[in-house]
Design goal:
This protein has 460 residues and is mainly α. It is built from 19 helices and no strands. Helix content is 75%, strand content 0%. It binds phenylalanine.
Amino acid sequence: MSTSLNKKVESNLDTQPRDQFKSKLGFILASAGSAVGLGNIWRFPYLTGANGGGAFVMLYLLVLVVVGVSLLLVEFSIGRNGKANAIDSYAKISKNFKWVGYLGVFTAFIILSYYSVVGGWTIYYTLKSVTGLTAVPADQIGAFFGGFIGNPFLPLVFHAIFMFATIYIVAKGISGGIEKYNKILMPALFIMLFILVARALTLPGAAKGLNFYLNPDFSKITMGTLVAACGQVFFSLSIGLSGMVTYASYLSSEENLAQSAVTVAFTDTLVAFLAGLIIFPAAFAFGLEPGQGPGLVFITLPTVFAQMPMGALFSFLFFALLAIAALTSSISILEMPVSYFIEKLKFTRQKAAWAIGGISYVLGIAVSLSFGMWGDVKIFGKGIFDLFDYFSSNISLPLSGLACAIIVGFVWKKQDVLKEVSSNGKYSGGYLNAWYNLTKYVIPVILAVVFLSSIGILKF
Ligand code: PHE
């Protein structure tokens, strides 16, 4: 989906003034493509499972509405005002906040490294669907998955394929494909999800899963649950990386930012919600442990497919769509540092994409091995995958979010903020004032608490 975006960056090098998204739909698709990905279908369900079910979902929705949507709008405003790579966009408001952009560049390397490992798993499952994934007996699918990710070599091949696809698209910056195909592929993903929801909900024993998923048990809420829910909101909406700052920097000053933010957040949440409606009924119907972690989707879904007529076909289509959804997100993760390397370090687009993707690939090798022979390696008491994931979602992204809220609330002049966010008065309304006050007075407090407890300073 970032195709038109890439063209914009390239043309920006030789033409002035800077180019823009041609249509609002292009921007919404690019941002929704960034948001909807593994975060919704892989990460959201396993965190929900590991954090007690319904109580986590409630907290997630609360943080989404209070913090997530507002910060998405904050990133959109900073980006469109900046009309440059993220670091320059922050510098335009205050030189003291350039570090937020640099932190984003660093974090993009980290997220991309493990995102593409899991992206590789989806490609493997797509191929395996054709060659007998649904024939694996339900009680052995866990062992099958464990055997695959624990293999020192095979996952690295698929990790390479996924990373190569990401680099290829970002490096080319053309092809007109991704954006065009997403108009077909995103609705196709939705249709698949609805079919699977229907199948999962009619499995015998599904009700127990629904109860776990939707009936909150508030005694399960701890500070750790809040940190995890908050991290998931950031990860899923693609905020805190300044990727949305980067995308919005290509947006025309005519578009309605608030409406775009709400549309993207709504789409993203709907996909995550549907994923949970499939996975929990299925997990309970087959007696699978919902708190088992990153393997949850890869273990529950094949058991559902095995119970469906034409299961292999559905399995193939589903994992292919998931791989593509993951790709439209990984492109946005790579685009963020690439735009900086091109505009500031004067790399060519090709070189930037290969260099950043290459380094992330190497980091990803360590992540992949941490599911197998490096399983015992612990840094700060965490395995490599857990460390990368915790650092990005629970520390770096919320910290940037905190900084962005402070920028809008206390550094940027209020009238300039409102001028930008309302497209110079074109879309005004009391809701913008409410958003401003929320961003200034409420969000920094919440994020400061979350950040301090995620680094272990605050304990409850
Ligand atoms: N939002 C993406 C997903 O849910 C992942 C992502 C995180 C993309 C951070 C960009 C920035 O899969």
